[in-house]
Prior knowledge:
This protein has six helices and seven strands, in the order E-E-E-E-H-H-E-H-H-H-E-H-E. The chain has helices at residues 44-50, 65-79, 102-108, 112-116, 121-130, 144-160; strands spanning 2-8, 16-21, 32-34, 36-40, 90-95, 131-135, 165-169. Strands 4-1-7 form a three-stranded antiparallel β-sheet, covered by helices on one side. The protein has a two-stranded antiparallel sheet with strand order 2-3.
Amino acid sequence: MSYDVYLKDKFGETLELAHPLREGGVYPSEGTKEAELNITSNYRELFRKHLDAELGIRWLSGKKASETQTRLSQAVEQLGTTQFKGSYWMRCTKVLQPASSSLGRRVASLTSQQLNHPSNADILAQAQEFLLVEDGGGYWAATPGNAGYALNILLQWTVEYPDGIWCVHS
């Protein structure tokens, strides 16, 4: 589950950004110029703590952008904007070496958390030669910096479009 956050004009049309956006949980590879940001619901508790205890990020919905600027600014200041750079999850999707091999058995016995642990770096390095490994990236981790980074994008929109109206879907 995730949140789709839009900034719309008075006619209900999504506003257009000056530069393509390549952020969030889901976006076109070339980016989008629409003022819409898909945010993972993994940040839900951080939004409840820093925006609204009951509504979280849904607190924005229906409000004018300029009315939300102060609270967004405070939340960004409290959370920071340093994104998590580690791997949130990894999974092996294709075994290029038989699972009956010694390395195949070792990798198969490890959870993704164990596989990502520094003590298993040698196993992961060997396994990547024989496996197709997907890295979910750090975006999905519910860290203050990740949540603050997303809110900072929205805060920038409030400066660019103070008359815009927030719309949040989940």
